[in-house]
Sequence to fold (1155 residues):
Amino acid sequence: MKKPRYIIEDRCTGCTTCVEYCPVEYPDPYNQEISQNKAVHIYFSQAIPLVTYIDASCLFLKEKKCLICEGVCKNKAIDFSQTEQTVAVNVGAVILALGYAPFDPRVRDEYGYGRIQNVVTSMDFERLLCSTGPYEGRILRASDKKHPRRIAWIQCVGSRRVTPGDNSYCSAVCCTYTQKQVILAKEHDAEAQCTVFHNDIRSHGKDFERYYQRTAQLPGVRFIRSYVSIAGEDPQTGNVTVRYATDDGVKEEEFDMVVLSVGLNPPADYGQLAHKFGITLDEHGFCEADSANPMQTSRAGIFVSGGFQGPIDIPESVFSASGAGAQCAQLLDHRRGKLTTERQYPPEKDVSGEEPRIGVFVCHCGANIGRIVDVPAVVEYVRSLPHVVYAQEQLFSCATNSADEITELTREKGLNRVVVAACSPRTLEPLFRDTLREAGINQYYCDMANIREHCSWVHAKQKDEATQKARDIIRMSVARACHLEPLQEFELPVNKAALVVGGGIAGMTCALSIANQGHAVCLVEKEADLGGTARRLHYTLEGLDVQAYLQDLIERVYRHPLIQVSHAATITAATGYAGNFVTRVKTEGRIREVKHGAVVLAVGADEYRPGEYLYGQDDRVLTQLELEERISREEEALMRARTLVMIQCVGCRNEDRNYCSRVCCSHAVKNALKLKDLRPEMDISILFRDMRMYGLREDYYREAAEREVKFIRWQPADPPQVEAIARRGKSILQVTVADPILGQRLEIDTDVLALSAAVIPSAGSREIAQLFRVPLDADSFFKEAHVKLRPVEFATEGVFLCGTAHYPKHIPEVINQAYGAAGRVLTLLSHDKIIASGSVCEVDEKKCIACGACVAACAYGVIELRATRKGEKAVVNPVICKGDGLCNALCPTGAISLKHFTDEELLSQIDAAVDEV
Amino acid sequence: MCSGRVDLEFVLRAFANGMDGVFIVGCRLNECNYITHGNYNALNMVSLCRRIMAHAGVNPDRLGIRFMSAADGILFADANDEFVRQIKALGPLGQSEGIDTQDLKAGLEKARKLIPYIKVMKREKLALHLDSEEAYQELYSREEVDSLLDEPVSYYIDPGKCRACMICARRCPVEAISGGKNRIHVIDQEKCIKCGTCFTACPDRFEAVEKISGASVPPPVPEEERQIKRKRRQVPAG
Fold:
């Protein structure tokens, strides 16, 4: 069912004149109804398409009155005759990316939301912080529109509670988003006093531990572990009183504003949606997924990604989005490319020898430019500029008919350069470049003069000055256009094969997905067998039989005709770039050269070998992986044990490794529950710092507590002590820990001590990073291109990553990311060629003095010094150049230049800025 | 294109053209659109350029730089207004400086000519990425830049030592060295960008290229005296 927008999308140019004239204001849902918006508006500033829609609050829709918008729209884009349409789409696969709904604290009166004015949700606060928010980025209170100084955040609102209306699970993201809000609030106002009332701090994400420390160390920031309640509101000041428990009893404190860090609910109307799609949901209302494939719903062909999988953070959402895409592609591989048609352009005319003949098109943008800037006067002026042979105005240059007009006139008037004076090139430059191509002119002969964002929009009250400024901007643009050069984009063939480094679950899953889409894969494993760390895992919290799963996966890899596995292999050299890599792989003394278009680094991670707590000195001290192995074969000594103690955070969250290993809390709870199944009478204690049972894992934590696993919190300043002492001729393993609840030191005699040892980067990761020229982070895990938005790729194009080499993670998360990486690999390998921009660097050898300034400036490794007949010279690999132009600015002799932004082009603009010709 | 693409030349050219202020806006520091963090390069260039401006008699406050994201519309407008106010308070170029426009332009032109030399001499410093905006303010000292501009080196070919081997002439990036086979090479001091390539290129056995600082360059050998008389003439083959 497609709801009417009441706007003809291809006609609306997003000029927002209608918004300005619309008389109806209603609470803007995008800004949490804190501020008003118009009945006709663009949903938010990054909306796609960036066109308006008309809300049900519209006067005409309600009372058949008004129609002002129809009158002011110069492009006749308003269409009230639109009705709801049922559209039938035939598809081969479906991805449910339904997201989540923020928890609504109104379900429980105790939170005071909606009742107390200055109690807001974290979603409200997020909008208040934002420059496109209700107060344009100013944080103001609802009661008096004043700036709050004392702000409190209350964590776990709606989460980790079994009371009706609340969610039993942990929402996984709130600890860190709160820290972000604290940092931003402090940036807005350095004097702000920020207090966070929390339970466990769950900083289980990559670099989250450091982020937490950074937040906690800010002046005026307090983190208080306590259960809190909202005691009331001061009717005079609107301030909110919070009551919380401390070591010295209950305390009350007043705040200017209280932020409820609300959790994540399943999407609204999830029941109905599940019914519609015929899929099963879990007990919370999230999508129930296959434990070995978290993107697979209970129905074949329907996949799930993002928040509907359960509470997850942005990187995991992105993994699963790309991964679900890869799985659809696997399913529909035989249909790939069937619906695409290639654009045909007329042959390009060589005009480089001609004198510049410039055409200038000045856009009114409806009323956006036209009502401020005197467009006819500007056109008249432009005609007087040198080399301008044609100029005219257009109502909307971006409208299809106007673009066609540009193409036509370019041909008819024999133009060889076109300047479009309209809006920002950010949105429309591709369109105008295309119109030039249609006219048979090189697309780089186009220049845009931004007289909207840079002129009419900011000088609404100074019409004469704005008109003068528009003249100046266009004059500069024309000056530059004279120097523009035709540039060719590079087309490079793509080698269709992939190399996957690492044969663990991540590498194998990724390799299979790539191979299932018809691409040859070379899978390189350093050990003699496939499987990686998973060979030491036996079951997951959710009940997956890891060994059976692994065996099946290994068999599928071996059986796949397109996957070639190299065992006990090392990589000795790697050269090339996206689409064309050459890597040397050494196996059994022989070196083989592999040519491939993409590479996935999935080299995994290792378990830390503890030097603490008598590990390696006393047989009764094990790591969690060793414990798991003994549980799986029900080892006799272990089964006889009456007492078992686990210590968390061994080897991480400390000075040496300032990160959280993410998986250990769950491993501890998993092993404790397994032991309780086998030996219910066993006395199990888990000594922890924060139980990071994030997401739906929280339920298992609760189960463990209910089954009398003891959880004892220790502080980093006073860690547990382990001693082997002799008592009555017997050696006793004694663990001593301060119990904060009982306020005394506990001495536990234990038969077995399991250490939750850190997950550490794989020993070979540094070498691999150097070979493929990709970075490692401060903890020596691989550093992805963007921690949130590009979590499976490196900044170096064609190189991807997945699995624990990126950061410690659970098997389902590894699988999400492995499919995610496969999805990104396929977007590269499915093309026959890649197109690189024409705006890249070039070296004039004659001028190069081989000083190396450019080489040092280029982080992409595009430039190298090479010996030539005329001595050493800088040589550019234009294919991987990204066109930032740093080299150009540092070159002393002007030998290296960034095409399309050359010194000559830019200086001509600077010169033209000064005065009239 | 990155804010790090903004060249010293662009800024000095704008002032030489009579602009009263130049304002550079780059992405927020540490939030690079590329992976290069070139906005630090821009910051670096600005700190050097301000010293150069001071040397040429231009108030360094006429050059501004700020960092913000494309979504910071209000910040952008405020920053612009603030900069414009600042420049208006300074008045037209030369006015707050109390210098005649022609003198000011001459100073800027002189500095502009030395840009290649400055880039060669400050290559390592220009590549530095420091931690904070403040750290850049002290990166280049006034004395350092003053002496760089006041006492630039010159290169000169000693006519007594030059063997007319053409190596320096071929290597010169700006074709400032004239001379051919058996003709003593001469550096055109107007064209020369002082990059020192000839100095390094001249074979050790000749050492004909001299680096001169603090003294004036001897006049070029007259055209008619440039022919080299070889001591032992080789009998032409054939």
Notes: The domain at 154-225 of chain B is CATH 3.30.70.20 (Alpha-Beta Plaits).
